[in-house]
Design goal:
The chain is mostly beta strands and 166 residues long. It has one helix at 15-21, and strands at residues 25-33, 42-53, 57-67, 70-81, 86-93, 100-107, 110-118, 125-136, 139-147, 154-164. Strands 1-2-3-4-5-6-7-8-9-10 form a ten-stranded antiparallel beta barrel. Strand 2 and strand 3 form a beta hairpin. The radius of gyration is 17 Å and the shape is globular. It has a single domain, classed as Calycin beta-barrel core domain (Lipocalin, Beta Barrel), CATH 2.40.128. Helices cover 4% and strands 61% of the residues. The chain is built from one helix and ten strands; from the N terminus they run αββββββββββ. The relative contact order is 0.16.
């Protein structure tokens, strides 16, 4: 089916979308959760499968069979908005009732995303920040931070190192 000649051109993916497509594949994930500042982090293993959804988005399927004693699943969508000139990312999982919506940009070689969402323990709205940097073509490092609603102090809540399966 051809496009009428007077129609505006269809959007085309840009370099930001290609950066998203670099995530496509299956990843073995080493997870650290910082649940208590006086204790060692809780460790678990997960698998993340990232699929291409057309030329503009990726879909993430994150599965950990034993995260702190229970199975855990998360799903994410990530894209880039040329009009807003920022990345968008959404996240839902099987342990929290809230949808997270992050926006952000690359700062040097680190993707920094921010969200307003409830603290899962107190259900008080707070600020979240995530960072993702590529170590090499097959290794990514992700960290998540949140501000404690009562003090405003930012704490790290998790860290993931993802290695692409070959």
């Amino acid at each position: 089916m051809s496009q009428p000649t007077d129609a505006p051109p269809m959007p085309q993916p840009g370099p930001e979308h290609q950066r998203l497509m670099d995530h496509v594949g299956t990843w073995d994930v080493e997870c650290l959760f910082f649940t208590d500042p006086s204790a060692d982090p809780v460790r678990c293993a997960a698998v993340e499968t990232v699929e291409r959804f057309g030329p503009f988005y990726t879909l993430s399927h994150f599965d950990a069979p034993d995260m702190m004693g229970m199975p855990f699943q998360g799903r994410g969508i990530r894209g880039y908005s040329p009009a807003a000139r920022h990345y968008d990312s959404t996240w839902i999982d099987t342990l929290t009732p809230d949808l997270f919506h992050f926006t952000g940009r690359y700062e040097d070689d680190v993707l920094v995303l921010h969200a307003k969402a409830p603290d899962p323990m107190s259900q008080v709205l707070t600020t979240w920040r995530s960072t993702e940097r590529w170590i090499d073509a097959d290794t990514r490092h992700f960290e998540m931070f949140m501000k404690i609603p009562t003090s405003g102090q930012e704490i790290q809540v998790m860290s993931y190192t993802s290695r692409r399966r070959r």
